[in-house]
Amino acid sequence: EVQLVESGGGLVQPGGSLRLSCAASGFTFSSYAMSWVRQAPGKGLEWVSAISGSGGSTYYADSVKGRFTISRDNSKNTLYLQMNSLRAEDTAVYYCAKDRGDTAMVTYYMDVWGKGTTVTVSS
Amino acid sequence: EIVLTQSPATLSLSPGERATLSCRASQSVSSYLAWYQQKPGQAPRLLIYDASNRATGIPARFSGSGSGTDFTLTISSLEPEDFAVYYCQQRSNWPPGTFGQGTKLEIK
Q1: pLDDT tens digits, A30-69
Q2: Which residues, listed in sequence order, are joined to residue A20 by a DSSP beta bridge?
Q3: Edge-to-edge strands of the sheet including B19-25?
Q4: Residue A67 in contact with residue A52, Cβ under 8 Å?
Q5: In this predicted structure, what is the pLDDT of residue A26?
Q6: Residue A100 to residue B55, Cβ atoms within 8 A
Q7: Which of A45, A62, A114 sits opposite B99 (nearest CB)?
Q8: Confidence of residue B106 (pLDDT cuts 50, 70, 90)
Q9: What pLDDT, on a 0 to 100 scale, did the predictor assign at position B7?
Q10: Residue B9 DSSP symbol
Q11: What's the pLDDT at B58?
């Protein structure tokens, strides 16, 4: 069974840092691009970042560029999101998602999602 | 920056009825548009990609159409489990992965 399990969320003060992890199983992790998508409380979906299967190409929304870093460890089947200089507006559920394309390139279409991990930025 | 506008914001229908949801892009996205369904407390689910292709395991009552700037998601006969929020998403223009604001499909 294809599965994604996020972890690492929590309460952090403005200006703080947090690292999210996403453990993948049930598919050849390195063959697929991956993304992070977030959803603020009561709001819609916002794409945050994506990474190719090899990890050689990364993409960021303008709202997080320069503050967040996406990475992956294909030997551990794990995706990461390092979040620095956190702001109140970063408060959201963060979803890890598998790209549907099987070329390891990013298509931005996401066919498998984790259940999400909650990040709250507040003093 | 591209903007996706979904309409209506809320659609009230009964089981068995036909649902038509709209997504309009502020500039052409060719056929690079997807639709997702999200139920309360759950992660989104990919329904349609490249405007008209059903994702794996998606029932045939879901169909997508359109190209350029105007797109439609149609649910031919609503089942009770179809009442949810639906989002469109484009991958053609910057910023990639942009979502619309969503349409809530509720039971009348």
Answers
A1: 999 999 999 999 999 999 999 999 999 999 999 999 999 9
A2: A81
A3: B4-7, B19-25, B70-75, B62-67
A4: no
A5: 97
A6: yes
A7: A45
A8: very high
A9: 96
A10: S
A11: 97
Rounded Cα distance between A13 and A100, Å, is 35
In chain B the domains, ranked by start, together with CATH numbers, are 4-107 (2.60.40.10)
Instruction: Answer whether the bond into residue B95 is a cis peptide, omega within 30°.
Output: yes
Which of A50, A115, A116 is facing B97, going by the closest CB pair? A50
Question: Prior bond to B8 cis, omega within 30?
Answer: yes
Contact at 8 Å (CB) between A12 and A121? Answer: yes
The identity of residue B64, as a single letter, is G
Coil, strand or helix at A49:
strand
Length reported for chain A: 123
Q: Give the burial string for B81-94 (b: 16+ CB within 10 Å, else e).
A: ebbbbbbbbbbbbe
| Spatial CA neighbour of A34 closest among A93, A85, A74, A83 | A74
